[in-house]
Amino acid sequence: MSGLLLDPWFYAAAIPAVILVGLSKGGFGGAVGFIGVPLMALAMPPVQAAAILLPILCLMDIVSVWTWWGVYDRKMLTDMMPGAVIGIGLGWLTAALVTAEMVRLIVGAVAILFVLRWVYLQ
Hints:
- By secondary structure, the protein is an all-alpha fold.
- It is 78% helix and 0% strand.
- The protein has one domain.
- The radius of gyration is 16 Å and the shape is globular.
- The mean pLDDT is 83.
């Protein structure tokens, strides 16, 4: 990790990625947040890129839960929970069983699918 701190490509990827993810998560950037991990994966392994972004995302989620405490849509939560649990399980299995190169390929494929879906819906 200390080698990354001296690498200018790390900052060239990390700073825009964190800004895009933060703007998207805050509601200002639309769907550009999905670019964060693939952008950082250009300069480091994708699992490490996700690990760097995770504390930032968790802190933002804590602030969101605190701000919106008690305001929720039970039906939407019920609809989303099974997919979230399955996605977390699949992500854990994927990260535990595949190589860094395969994770990079999966992250790239998912990013391309998100872009294609976005273009299709426009």
